[in-house]
Design goal:
The protein is about 45% helix and about 15% strand. It is α+β, with helices and mostly antiparallel strands and about 450 residues long. The strands form six sheets. It has a three-stranded antiparallel β-sheet, with no helix packed on it. A three-stranded antiparallel β-sheet has the order 4-6-5. Strands 1-2 form a two-stranded antiparallel sheet. The protein is globular and about 80 Å long.
Length: about 450
């Protein structure tokens, strides 16, 4: 059943004020208690067909937001705004307070009234399912960021006193979960886009979107045929599970490559002096607080950055012994990180397989912590496998034939997820050592 008729009617009326008419006749929007809003094809849609056109005058943009009364007061007060999203949020607050006299009311009334699935609203009981997860620190950071901007504006802008924190929080979350970044007149601006923000996420979206300067409109086009009644998905971008979970309140499958975990490792500087949490010029991997905590993914780039932090000299010279020490250090750090969690990965996989969750937020919490454990287990398996190869090499005849090297490398390469390291590091290192001329 089609819903959100008010916003549809508002768009039709609003777009009459400009030269471009809003177009969205190819889609239907339905809503159910469990699944939320779903955008479906209202008819058979062809590959390359434009299905949504929203004129600029129906968008709420950060460019317009900075011209509103409240934004002018903020700029005049010289208050420090830590997030660009805040400009659009205060604009949304100002327009929301106007009620049905706001020109955007048809859109504003279609926005969520609450965000129960967002982890920042999790109860103590729900947070208990995240014990050991990096999501907890990200939730804390999100709360601090919201409170910081609210208190900064409240202190320096007298006109802001009529707004309470709940209004600000709601507005920021509306922007956080729905904002599009578009290029308008050659400049990047944030925008809230009616209808376009109703599409759910998929890593295999059927649509693409862009802002057309010539038409002064936001456009969405299908990239494949979509049969009538099928759900149409957008992509919210390639992100880690923690970003989907903390920033949007959902989790996704098939996101293994982009998931992340945090480990605590000792750093070795010049003179073999050990320290923790200090920066070097050799890498730009982001530290998470004090104590040498670093975010890792299963990519070769992530491994190389972390390696350069542990062994800065590795950039210029690699050795079998050095690689073994490095891999052992990372392996131990990952095993230690797993101890933060009260349950094993096998336990989590069993829960997800049964799928008997009464609360979808609990399931999301399990998927979240599971994603971190999978990264840690990947590193343990990777480090163990590579260490054993290097150790077998060290224990064998140093003048081993190139054919034997190829066999050893081929065995390691058979594990597809280790291929990048094998091709870029292990193969060249063993081959150079097996060459009598090297």
């Amino acid at each position: 059943m089609e819903t959100h008729i008010p916003v549809f009617e508002w768009l039709r009326q609003c777009s009459k004020d400009g030269n471009i008419t809003a177009e969205f006749g190819a889609i239907n929007v339905t809503e159910s208690k469990g699944a939320g809003r779903i955008v479906r094809a209202g008819r058979n849609i062809k590959d390359g067909e434009r299905i949504v056109t929203i004129p600029l005058n129906c968008l709420m943009t950060s460019r317009d937001a900075k011209k509103c009364q409240l934004a002018r007061e903020i700029k005049k007060s010289h208050a420090t705004i830590h997030s660009e999203h805040t400009w659009l949020a205060v604009y949304l607050m100002e327009e929301s307070r106007k009620g049905n006299t706001s020109r955007y009311w048809g859109y504003i009334s279609s926005l969520p009234k609450s965000f129960e699935s967002m982890p920042i609203f999790f109860s103590k009981e729900l947070k208990a399912h995240l014990q050991g997860s990096i999501a907890l620190s990200k939730i804390t950071s999100m709360k601090k960021d919201l409170r910081r901007d609210f208190e900064e504006i409240s202190e320096k802008v007298p006109g802001f006193a009529k707004y309470d924190y709940k209004e600000f929080e709601w507005s920021r979350l509306c922007v956080w979960t729905r904002v599009f970044s578009i290029e308008l007149g050659g400049k990047e601006v944030d925008a809230l886009v009616p209808i376009a923000d109703m599409f759910n996420h998929s890593p295999q979206p059927q649509i693409s979107w862009y802002f057309c300067d010539e038409e002064k409109a936001f456009c969405m086009t299908c990239e494949q045929d979509v049969p009538k009644g099928a759900q149409i998905f957008d992509s919210y971008g390639r992100k880690s599970m923690s970003r989907y979970f903390v920033n949007y309140g959902f989790t996704v499958g098939g996101n293994y490559t982009f998931n992340e975990a945090v480990i605590d490792v000792p750093l070795r500087m010049k003179g073999d002096r050990k320290c923790k949490g200090k920066h070097t010029k050799y890498a730009d991997i982001s530290p998470r607080g004090k104590g040498g905590k670093y975010t890792i993914t299963t990519s070769l780039a992530s491994f190389q950055k972390l390696s350069q932090r542990i062994q800065p000299e590795r950039m210029f010279s690699k050795s079998i012994e050095g690689e073994i020490r490095l891999l052992l250090t990372i392996e131990k750090a990952c095993k230690h990180a797993l101890k933060r969690f009260p349950h094993s990965l096998r336990y989590d996989h069993a829960l997800l397989k049964k799928n008997e969750f009464r609360d979808p937020n609990v399931r999301n919490a399990v998927v979240m912590r599971c994603s971190e454990k999978e990264v840690l287990h990947w590193y343990i398996g990777f480090c163990t496998t590579m260490r054993h190869i290097y150790m077998r090499w060290s224990e064998s005849n140093p003048s081993k034939s190139s054919n034997s090297v190829s066999d050893m490398v081929a065995g390691a390469r058979s594990v597809e997820s280790y291929r990048d390291y094998v091709d870029c590091v292990l193969d060249s290192l063993l081959t150079s050592l097996s060459d009598p001329k090297s």
